[in-house]
Every structure is written in structure tokens, then in C-alpha cells.
Specification:
Distance between the termini: 12 Å
CATH superfamily: Hypothetical protein ph0010, domain 1
Number of strands: 6
Oligomer: single chain
Strand order of the largest sheet: 2-1-3-6-4-5
Radius of gyration: 17 Å
Largest sheet: 6 strands, antiparallel
Helix content: 25-40%
CATH class: Alpha Beta
Length: about 210
């Protein structure tokens, strides 16, 4: 059973790699993203400062895109999620660090994360791409596209796959933004490239 689960996990990592980076760069990028997330969590929860690692890939140093960090438990249920559709930091590496720090404390739907939980959690790092304004809700496919609904400085976001129907997706984004019942809001659809890994493997090594 363990072997089957391991095969599934490896397969997930492969299929969510960005298709605009070659295979070798994908592997390096995944390792560096894992390191950024893990080091940010450990240092933040231990009250230590975070420094940028040396020898980062050009993609992490030069790219500016939004990022969502999502933690899920062993049943696949969301434990915490935080992110930005538009980039707020000077590069992707700092965006990952900033949003990892925020997910530890800023998702007020859940209690703060602890180090003891890490072996029981998986992490999904979603890199935002192809953001565009849409006027017609039927241009949105909830299975493969995320949605950001905004008005007057308020915004709500759902990632791809978090909704089954576009109508529920819009209503939930409005609710999350505190805009329930509002009209004349802006809708932006987007896609993501997702990197998946689990903390148990990072801490204890492959079994």
C-alpha cells in the first residue's frame, strides 16, 4: 500500500510541472521551492530571521508572479491557504517566502500552524499565470481556471478545482470578499502551475 501511495505522489509532482521549463529546470525549481517553504516555516515558527539562499535559479530570481501556498492534511482537507494573484514582492523567491510566512498566521479561518503538524501536511505551491478580465461567467471553467472577484478594493479568490460550478464559484468569491449581493464587480480568471510535496518526506526522507 505504501508503494502505491508513493507512486501516486511522484506522479502528481510530474504532471503539475510548468510546461514552459525543461525537465532538468523543473527538478531544480521544485527542490528550491521546497527548500524556500521549509526554511521559511522553520525559521518563522522559531522566531528566526529569513535569509535568501544562494545559487537560486534565474526563474526564482527574475520572475515576478503571484503565488498561493496551500497546506492540506492527510485527508486532503485544506489546513491553511494564503496567496496573491498579482505579485507584491521583487521576485518569485521573495513572493514564496512572504506568502509562506503569511499562511502560518494570516488565515484566520484556522488556528496557527505548528512545527508538530508538518509531518502530517502536504504543501501545494500554485504559481499564477494567464490573468485576464472576463465579462461573461460562461468563459470560466472552474476545473482548470481560478477566479478573482473584486470591487472597491475588496477581493475574493478561488483556485482552480475549488469549485464545481461557475455560479457557486462567483458567489463564494463574493462572500469571501465581503461583497455578497453586490453587482458591477470585476472578474479575472487565471490558471496555475502547481508544485506538490509533503513535509514528512522532507523531514524524514523517503521511505
Amino acid at each position: 500500500m505504501k508503494k502505491k501511495l508513493l507512486i501516486i505522489s511522484i506522479f502528481l509532482v510530474i504532471i503539475v510541472y510548468p510546461n514552459y521549463i525543461n525537465a532538468k529546470e523543473n527538478i531544480i525549481l521544485l527542490k528550491q521551492i521546497k527548500s524556500l517553504v521549509k526554511n521559511t516555516i522553520v525559521n518563522t515558527l522559531n522566531g528566526k530571521q529569513i535569509s535568501m539562499p544562494q545559487n537560486l535559479s534565474d526563474y526564482l530570481k527574475n520572475k515576478r508572479i503571484g503565488v498561493f501556498i496551500t497546506f492540506r492534511d492527510i485527508n486532503g482537507k485544506v489546513r491553511a491557504c494564503y496567496g496573491t494573484v498579482e505579485p507584491m514582492e521583487k521576485n518569485l523567491a521573495w513572493e514564496i517566502i512572504a506568502n509562506t510566512k503569511s499562511v502560518l498566521k494570516s488565515d484566520d479561518r484556522f488556528l496557527p500552524l505548528s512545527l508538530l503538524e508538518l509531518p502530517h501536511l502536504s504543501c501545494y505551491v500554485s504559481l499564477i499565470k494567464n490573468i485576464e478580465v472576463v465579462k461573461d461567467k460562461y468563459c470560466i471553467n472552474p476545473e482548470v481556471q481560478g477566479l478573482r472577484v473584486s470591487k472597491n478594493g475588496k477581493a475574493g479568490v478561488l483556485l482552480p478545482g475549488e469549485a464545481k460550478t461557475v455560479n457557486w464559484m462567483i458567489l463564494e468569491c463574493l462572500r469571501k470578499a465581503g461583497l455578497s449581493g453586490q453587482k458591477d464587480y470585476t472578474m479575472q480568471r487565471f490558471k496555475t502551475d502547481v508544485f506538490f510535496f509533503n513535509f514528512k518526506e522532507m523531514i524524514y526522507g523517503k521511505k
